[in-house]
Design goal:
Shape: globular
Distance between the termini: 25 Å
Strand content: under 5%
Number of strands: 2
CATH architecture of one domain: Orthogonal Bundle
CATH topology of one domain: Endonuclease III, domain 1
Order of helices and strands: EEHHHHHHHHHH
CATH superfamily of one domain: Hypothetical protein, domain 2
Structural class: mainly alpha
Oligomer: single chain
Amino acid sequence: MSTEPGPFADGTAPGPDGRPRCPWALSTADYLAYHDDEWGRPVHGDSALYERLTLEAFQSGLSWLTILRKRAGFRRAFAGFDPVVVAGYDDDDTERLLADPDIVRNRAKIAAAVTNARAVVALREENGDGALDRLVWSHAPRVLEAPATLAEVPASTPESIALAKALKSRGFVFVGPTTAYATMQAAGLVDDHLVGCIARRPAARV
């Protein structure tokens, strides 16, 4: 995602309809749809949050556009991100996924996805359905300040550091503070749309 400011005074840029958006959203239709319809909007449910954690981990070192364009492949490969199913994946499944051109074929990241599915299952066994949802959302900041410029959007925060630590303590891997913060952005725990962006939610806290 580009960090270059847009031409409007508040750092936004005009979309295809002329309305202001975060400038990173305007390079492709894939980014535009994700920006307008998903990014920064609240996501709940263990499977949905497991998906966001998994995709953000796979994105590490790659363009987010690569992940978006392979998202359907990821969903198929990881059984709709059902953690119970993925927790049962074995070495044969790993080899199958390594041969799947519709996902990012990285052994360490595939292994992390399976490990994290097992961590979700263990968390549920201890704390019931929705345990991942409650854990993740317990780290949502109480006050959300609208970033005025892209330079004000952080890579990590005290809350993402705490979330990464909490997840790691429960057996999750590939969840450093930056990945945790990207997940918080993707799942709407924070709303980092610029203050002038049309996709910014009117309420500061959900």
